[in-house]
Amino acid sequence: MLSPTKRRKHASSGSNKSEESTSTATQSLTAMMVLNATDKKKKSNHKRGSTSMTAPETTTTTTTPRRRSKRDTNRIVLNSGRNGSLPYRRMEQLFFDEPVTTAITRSKKQPKKQGQSPPVVTIRIAKLTLERAFTAPNIYVIDNFLTSSDLEYLHDKVIRQCHRKFQRSYVDSNVDATSLLDHTHRTSTFLSFAKQENAKIAAIEQRAAQLLGYYSTDQIEPLQLVRYLPGQFFGVHHDMGDLNEDSGQVALPPKNVLVKRRLVTIFCYLNDLPPQAGGCTYFPECQHLKIRPQQGRAVVFANVNPEGLPDPRTVHAGDPVLDSSTTTTTHTSTTTAADGNGKDGSQKDVVGSSSQEAPLVKYGLNIWVCES
Fold first, then answer.
1. How many CB atoms lie within 10 A of CB 10?
2. How far apart are CA 91 and CA 266, in angstroms?
3. Could you tell me which residues come within 8 angstroms of residue 56 by beta carbon, excluding any fewer than 6 positions away?
4. How many CB atoms lie within 10 A of CB 114?
5. Rounded CA separation 300/225 (Å)
6. How far is CA 268 from the centre of its chain?
7. 3-state SS, one letter per residue, for the chain
8. What is the dihedral of CA 130, 134, 137, 142, to 10 degrees?
9. Which among 261, 207, 211, 2 is positioned nearest to 90, based on CA atoms?
10. What is the pLDDT along the chain (372 residues), one digit of tens a residue?
């Protein structure tokens, strides 16, 4: 039998053991709560896509490598199709709808058979009639794109009054974004207009924008009037990028906030030239297609293919104006949409001609529709 003192000591010992057991249980519970809280934090971080993982004692941060996009950010994106914007759907309608390469008008080597007429594709857009001169790449001509009012302004107000303001034309370099004079490749002169310089220029810009489905003229580059004196020319080139003459390929220029890439070219003729005077717009990759200058006419073609890359088939040149003169106020013009051989035999006035002998001069207007 235990004495009172021993019983007290035993009870005290049992009490200590109970307290130790309670303390151990409390510590275990606390540890479990910490682990549960840590686990919940991990799950919460995982749901938020966090890259930081927190452990009870130490913090370890792991970084997931960023996936690189396979898309070529420099390539021009043509959002064609039902969900595409109107301008790109218009480009698809005009330039990317037929894969078969064929000349619409017959050349001299393929004479027209009796009773058979060549196929002609015409499209009506924004009160303008486009006649296809070549297919794949699609090249169009628009007679009377410039109105008589436009021609009167450009001739009387610009050509005569700004005769001494024409500058030597240059070629652009996509390598270092510079412009260089190249007397062996381009010898014409030019005169630039400011954006919407006046009501006449703004109307021409708006007409070009509507043709390609734009509601504003933001995508229209400032207009450029060019002049070709006798003997002057512009060699084979591409309006979007640098042409490699050895490979025949065209380099896609990098994106530039200040200078946008040219998707479509609209080149307008301000005056007629007789057949023997040269000055045609020449497409060497389109069965040597030539468009003869006719007052008010425009030739339209795309500089880009459906993949968003420069189309090397639309390289072109400005044939030299031959050193000839005229002694009458009018010339007989027998031009067709494609090569200028036989249409209606109508007579057209030549800008700058007079009763005295005068050299023939070709005037044109460059309109470029650029990337958004």
1. 11
2. 13
3. 34, 35, 38
4. 5
5. 16
6. 19
7. CCCHHHHHHHHHHHHHHHHHHHHHHHHHHHHHHHHHHHHHHHHHHHHCCCCEEECCCCEEECCCCCCCCCCCCCCCCCCCCCCCCHHHHHHHHHHCCCCCCEECCCCCCCCCCCCCCCCCCEEEECCEEEEEEEECCCEEEECCCCCHHHHHHHHHHHHCCCHHHCEECCEEECCCCEEECCCCCECCEEEECCCCCCHHHHHHHHHHHHHCCCCCCCCECCCEEEEECCCCCEEEECCCCCECCCCCCECCCCCCCCCCCEEEEEEEECCCCCHHHECCEEECCCCCEEECCCCCCEEEEECECCCCCECHHHCEEECCECCCEECCCEEECCCCCCCCCCCCCCEEECCCCCCCCEECCEEEEEEEEECC
8. -20
9. 211
10. 555 554 444 444 444 444 555 555 566 666 666 566 666 555 555 444 444 444 555 555 555 555 544 456 778 887 655 556 889 889 999 999 764 333 333 334 444 555 555 678 999 998 999 999 999 999 999 999 999 999 999 998 888 887 768 888 755 555 454 555 555 677 889 999 999 999 999 999 999 999 999 999 999 999 999 999 999 999 999 999 999 988 989 999 988 877 789 999 999 999 999 988 999 999 999 999 999 999 999 999 999 999 999 999 999 999 999 976 543 333 333 334 444 433 333 333 334 443 345 689 999 999 999 997
Domain ranges within the chain, ordered by starting residue: 4-61, 86-370
The span from the CA of 11 to the CA of 5, in Å, is 10
How far is residue 88's CA from residue 93's CA, in Å, rounded to a whole number? 9
How does strand 171-173 pair with strand 167-168? unpaired
Q: Which amino acid is at 160?
A: R
Architecture per CATH, 86-370: Sandwich (2.60)
Structure tokens at 329: 């106020």
Return the structure tokens found at 295. 């007052």
